[in-house]
Amino acid sequence: DQQTIGSLMNTIEKSIGLYQRYLKLKAKLMGLDKLANYDLVAPLPNAPETDYGWKKAREEIVNAYMDFDKDIGNWVEEMFEKRHIDGKVRKGKESGAFCAPWHAGKSAYILQSFNGKVGDVYTQVHELGHAIHDYLLSRTQKPSNCEVGSCLGETGSIFGELLLTERLLSKAKTKEEKQAVLAHVLDEFGMTTFQVSARVFFEQSMYDTIKQGKFLDGETVAELWVAARDKIYGNSVDWLDVMKWEWTMKPHYYMANYRFYNYPYVLAQLFVFALYRIYKKEGESFVPKLKKLLSAGSSKSPSELAAELGFDIAHERFWEKGIEQAKEFIDILEKTL
After folding, report:
1. Distance between CA 5 and CA 154 in Å, rounded?
2. Cα–Cα distance between 48 and 18 in angstroms, integer?
3. 81-124: per-residue pLDDT in tens?
4. pTM greater than 0.90 (yes/no)
5. Dihedral of the CA atoms 151, 166, 232, 278 (nearest 10)?
6. What are the residue ranges in the chain where pLDDT is below 70?
7. Which pLDDT tens digit goes with each residue over 23-59?
8. Which uninterrupted H or E stretch holds 243?
9. Residues 6+ away with beta carbon under 8 Å from 221
10. Closest Cα partner for 301 from 269, 266, 264, 273?
11. Can you give the pLDDT at residue 104?
């Protein structure tokens, strides 16, 4: 509903300074006065070259889930045991990853090109989060309630990434290892929560421009994009002039027949960060709540599921919990400098 979307985006606007604070921290870590646009998701220059073999990645992922809940950990272990994860790099096989669900309680299947880098481990834990989501909802719901929308579809996967982050941070032996883990998580959080919010503001500004009777030629659209982008980044990033055309790079910035495609991704990311914040406070008592949420599939709306946890997503206080979790990561990162 509009009130929920308004509360979400108001929270983003109030938190822009926090994201810019992270960008300035990253610039320091990279030995720069200021980030350029091509530095936004660049790896840290002092990040250790940690190679994860298949066995080591499996151990870290399974234990990350096992520390949260033994049943979930066993389901993840089963995915490896049954060889339902195709991670081998082969000629003609695409990069990235995909999790295919299976009906009536059967296990999911994951397709991935695994190269042994920390990003591949995060991708694997992400896809296994989807598998857990599929495992729970397919055993509880009928097929009509198994098509989970964008607002909730990433709940299991992002939560799994945060569980892995917790484990890797606890095992980090050097500040460089800790910095690499935190930068990976915060880069993704920043791009999904804040850069995508710029697209939300951008799309709205185009509709407002049309209402004013103005014509959306290329230069006008580019000006609107730069204004929305700068609303998020301020002066914390130097942009190449050509980046005023960034909105032409892919259709995700706006889709003519899929209005407001972007805000669900902002909602999904902050929703999970808020849930993780609650988990950190409640501990084991939160585990059955998350399992119940994932079991619901698409039978209930995000607001109904949040209400069952005792929260109202129509109010900013819920979304602020997600920002608080991101702030905790940024605080930890700052202490490593």
Report:
1. 18
2. 26
3. 999 999 999 999 988 899 998 766 677 999 999 999 999 999 99
4. yes
5. 50
6. 103-105
7. 999 999 999 999 999 999 999 999 998 889 999 999 9
8. none
9. 206, 247
10. 264
11. 67
Rounded CA-CA distance 20/190 in Å is 9
User: What DSSP designation does 260 have?
Assistant: T
At 143 the pLDDT is 85
Q: How far is CA 104 from CA 16, 85, 299, in A?
A: 44, 19, 16
Q: b or e along 89-113 (b: 16 or more beta carbons within 10 Å of the residue's beta carbon)?
A: eeeeeeeebebebeeeeebbbbebb
Please tell me the predicted confidence (pLDDT) of residue 170. Answer: 96
DSSP state letter for 306: H
- Written in H, E and C, the secondary structure of 14-35 is HCHHHHHHHHHHHHHHCCCCCE
Q: In this structure, are residues 101 and 146 in contact, taking their beta carbons and an 8 Å threshold?
A: yes
Tokens of 244: 């005023």
CB atoms within 10 A of CB 326: 23
Q: Where are the beta strands (DSSP E) in 33-174?
A: 35-36, 85-86, 97-100, 109-112
Residue type, 216: L
Q: Which residue has the tokens 């808020």?
A: 274
Q: Which amino acid is at 239?
A: W
- Residue 146 is predicted with a pLDDT of 86
Residues 258, 208: Cα–Cα separation, whole Å:
17
Residue 327's alpha-carbon distances to 7, 277, 307, in angstroms, are: 19, 11, 25
CB of 19 within 8 A of CB of 328?
Answer: no
The residues, ordered by sequence, that sit 6+ positions from 32 with a Cβ below 8 Å of its Cβ are: 39
